[in-house]
Design brief:
Order of helices and strands: EEEHEHEEHEEEEHHHHHHHHHH
Number of strands: 10
Strand content: 15-25%
């Protein structure tokens, strides 16, 4: 435990006091550092935060310095002369007023903008819909350079049922329902199970000011499946970014928050609107330009793919937590490429379409398998894992792994998962019965 520093007025050792208060959510405990001379710190929900604020000199209400006792030694205060503290607080003010002047506020904000311009790097910025948004790396710099403390206030995980529908311009729309809800899907719609992660973080400044912010993410929020750990980490990242931004950056929206709104679909929507509104005279010019480009491309089909194309493929693989080993196996068998560096221009679109097909069909199936595996916990019962059972069946039936299946095969396997789960549950029951019999004997 951190040692409490001496009182800044009387130089004596203060004490940590705690008490209960009544709130809407029920009784709550509060902590405060208090000294015999009347100097005290602000109240906090945790003892550690109260000690940290006191030791940093933040949130300390200092009484007027008492007169020195002439008979006592120099620097030692006469505790009899200490009177009631005369402190100007916000409650004493006739109206609410700024803590600093307008010129001071302008200067502080200018300093922040200059600091931001100096420390931000190209890797900290992500361009979305023509606008620059700051990524997680920038907000972690702010946390470090501003000496902020981040505390996890609350973390929740909730299972829900969702209905995935196709909206305007091909954008996926999602409706959330309780797990017990009985819903029907129309043609073209899908019913899926998802997990929603909700997190609240508190960013605390050295002066004791703090900001609470929440972050949410679910496995199917973009209409496409995401991994369990990736969705959970995204919720934490969004909450942290928002708390830091609310406290320091004026509530600026981070790049990770924008991803939650399906930005890629929005960009496609904007592009479709622009293309549909082109005049006919521009369409003719576009066809002529296409002919020119096609001639140039014909001379470069045998060249290696560019760095931008490599980045596009790797972003797809990383963002959706795809198994690169399975993709590498497919590349080697179908395209004869041992790595992305070996890919030629003519093979780029083939691989990109395959990765997009995996994201659209195989990855959602893989996520469903992972969720069932987590729920059954086969390892705990000492039986073959659910994922291994499904993978073996796919290998026997289609002679490929999950990533090698097409859309129809993925759909068929998704429909078969409840039957596989029931078989595993029966095996678990048999194991439990055997253990009971052994204990009985």
């Amino acid at each position: 435990m951190a040692k409490i520093k001496n009182c800044p007025v009387c130089k004596l050792q203060p004490e940590l006091s705690d008490y209960y208060i009544s709130t809407e959510a029920g009784p709550g405990r509060r902590y405060m550092i208090e000294c015999k001379c009347g100097t005290k710190g602000k109240e906090y929900k945790s003892a550690a935060t109260a000690k940290r604020a006191w030791n940093k000199g933040t949130g300390v209400v200092v009484v007027k310095a008492p007169a020195e006792d002439k008979k006592s030694k120099k620097g030692v205060m006469d505790m009899k002369n200490i009177k009631e503290a005369e402190v100007v607080t916000a409650s004493n003010m006739p109206i609410v007023r700024p803590a600093i002047s307008a010129m001071e506020a302008k200067q502080v904000w200018k300093e922040y903008q200059e600091f931001k311009t100096t420390v931000v790097e190209p890797s900290d910025i992500q361009k979305i819909q023509g606008r620059d948004f700051l990524k997680k790396s920038y907000w972690r710099k702010i946390e470090k350079f501003f000496n902020l403390d981040l505390e996890l206030v609350r973390e929740e995980e909730k299972s829900l049922k969702i209905l995935v529908k196709k909206g305007a311009y091909g954008k996926s729309e999602i409706e959330y329902y309780p797990m017990e809800a009985d819903i029907d899907a129309n043609p073209g719609e899908q019913i899926k199970n998802t997990i929603v992660f909700s997190v609240i973080y508190r960013a605390i400044a050295p002066n004791g000011c703090f900001a609470d912010a929440d972050g949410h993410c679910d496995i199917w929020e973009k209409g496409r499946a995401n991994s369990y750990h990736n969705a959970k980490a995204t919720a934490h990242t969004r909450a942290k970014n928002r708390a830091i931004s609310d406290l320091v950056g004026g509530g600026e929206v981070s790049a990770e928050e924008m991803h939650g709104y399906g930005v890629s679909q929005v960009k496609n929507m904007v592009q479709n609107r622009v293309q549909s509104s082109q005049p006919k005279r521009n369409q003719q010019q576009a066809r002529q330009n296409t002919k020119i480009v096609s001639k140039e491309q014909s001379s470069t089909v045998n060249k290696a793919i560019s760095e931008n194309q490599k980045s596009t493929l790797m972003d797809l693989i990383k963002n959706y937590s795809l198994d690169f080993d399975s993709i590498h196996k497919w590349m080697l068998e179908k395209l004869g490429a041992n790595s992305l560096a070996d890919l030629q221009q003519k093979d780029y679109n083939t691989l990109k379409q395959k990765v997009e097909q995996i994201v659209e069909h195989a990855r959602p199936l893989e996520i469903e398998i992972e969720l069932i595996e987590k729920r059954l916990d086969c390892e705990k019962h000492g039986i073959v894992s659910f994922a291994d059972r499904v993978n073996d069946y796919v290998q026997r039936k289609y002679k490929v792994d999950l990533y090698g299946m097409n859309a129809e095969q993925c759909k068929f396997m998704s429909e078969q998962l409840p039957a596989f789960e029931q078989t595993v549950l029966q095996n678990i029951d048999e194991k439990l019965k055997d253990k009971v019999e052994e204990l009985g004997n």
